[in-house]
Amino acid sequence: MKAYRIRQEINGIEEPPGKTWFFELQAGVIDAGRCIQCGTCVAACPSNSIGVDEDTDLPELVKMCTGCSLCWDFCPRGGLRYEALWPPSTIMPGATADEVAASSVERVDASDTYWKITGGPPGDGLGAVTEAYSVRAGARADGAQDGGVVSALLIAALAAGDIDGAVVTRPSDDPEEPWKGVSHLATTAKEITDAAGSYYNQTMALAELDLSRYDLPAKPKIAVVGTPCEIQGIRAMQARRWPSGAHRIDAVVLTIALLCTKSFDYRGLMLDLLQKDRGIDIDRVSKVDVIRGKMIVEYRDGELAVDEPIKNFHGAALKGCDECADFLGRSADLSIGSVGAIDGWSSVLVRTERGHRALDNARGRLDFRELDSPEALVKLDAFDKRVAFDSLRRPFDPDAPLFIDYAEHVATYEGTDRAPVVADR
Ligand SMILES: Cc1cc2nc3c(=O)[nH]c(=O)nc-3n(C[C@H](O)[C@H](O)[C@H](O)COP(=O)(O)OP(=O)(O)OC[C@H]3O[C@@H](n4cnc5c(N)ncnc54)[C@H](O)[C@@H]3O)c2cc1C
Ligand code: SF4
Ligand code: SF4
User: How far is C-alpha 367 from the geometric centre of its chain's CA atoms?
Assistant: First the structure.
């Protein structure tokens, strides 16, 4: 078979069945431009063989690959069927007949457990939801994106001793990378506050779960704030036990998904489309927002620097986001976003007992109102799923190789300063 021929060409060893190598992930996802930089492959690798390329922010092989296939199995753009992790939808307590009729909070029937990206029941509400509100923090962290709820919840969980730290996204301190979000484990309220706000780039967040460089208790308890694809990776790895490497998936006790339809390549968006093409002074930027179909950029003095249709920025969007059908972060403990709530508030969907406890801890710091527009969430979720479905309906090419050709793979690196990933095996 072709996959085994590749291995034979490398070193002549007869291959046992059932092996999948990093370079197959590289060819099918990373080099194909489909990687959404979630970091799941880094966290899943039991031999810590996958790192993050400093120039591209993409996964790279840093030592020997054993062909264990876990990077492929858990990759949301590889072997992971993430929708199988979604708990069935529920009727929210207190839903009115009108809301159910508007399919905003409906439990269709048991079949919605089987929703799958390649086809399934069309409507399944907001997923498993026990409570839903619009929420705002009494004292919003400076730079908070919407209601400042995510930061307030994390600070309260830290104060209650429910977590020892939280994986958040803070601004890079490299002057060459203004307004780039980088993943960081915050262990104090100040670090959480300093990381408030949204960065429209992916951070390989799950790579940060190698906690060895932090001073933490022997059994640390960690929250992760992430885009839905990052939470999918955590949930999948927690659901299936295997001899894991340095990354402490077991330490994650709280997951907060940010509602998400799209993320961007940092250089493409911030440096090319905003700084270079539109002359935006990135050092003066106080907020970047993708909202109501527009890209909004504000300066610190209140000046509106950009107010344009989001389609003008699609060239910098991650291609792998088109395939994603999880706008609502259905596998998380809490899903939080701006859609569905009025300006200055966040929409909050509580999905689990852990999520409920996190919200309860922070009650004294938060203002609540009824979720303003569950319909807006349902509508955007349906649109997101349609885009994902369409992106998977490319015509099937029977001549396309199922596995990559080793010689072709190596040839793609000719003339670049990067090495083929199989070189050290
Ligand atoms: C790439 C991206 C796309 C989004 N798309 C939508 C959308 O389509 N619709 C919608 O309703 N909401 C979207 N959001 C969520 C929204 O922007 C806010 O994050 C959310 O409303 C919470 O606001 P807040 O004021 O409660 O949180 P804050 O108190 O401001 O806290 C935000 C938290 O998110 C973390 N964070 C920031 N950037 C990232 C990142 N790139 N990856 C992981 N964590 C990060 C911060 O470190 C902080 O802990 C998106 C967010 C991101 C990062
Ligand atoms: S999508 Fe995530 S798991 Fe897949 S290759 Fe990219 S970083 Fe790794
Ligand atoms: S659109 Fe989906 S794949 Fe892209 S960053 Fe958001 S959650 Fe991840």
Answer: 27
Distance 407 CA to ligand 3 centre (A): 32
pLDDT in tens, 173-197: 999 999 999 999 999 999 999 999 9
The first and second tokens of residue 85, run together, are: 């992790």
Whole-prediction pTM value? 0.89
Which two three-digit tokens encode residue 269?
Answer: 């968006």
**pLDDT, tens digit, for every residue of 29-77?**
999 999 999 999 999 999 999 999 999 999 999 999 999 999 999 999 9
Binding site membership of 260 for ligand 3 (Cβ less than 6 Å): yes
- Ligand 3 near 206 CB (within 6 A): no
Q: Give CA–CA dist 85/392, Å, rounded.
A: 20
Instruction: Round to whole Å and give the CA distance between 21 and 72.
Output: 8
CA nearest 151: which of 240, 57, 258?
258
Domains and CATH numbers, the chain: 2-80+401-411 (3.30.70.20), 85-263+318-391 (no CATH)
Cα dihedral across residues 354, 356, 359, 363: positive or negative: negative
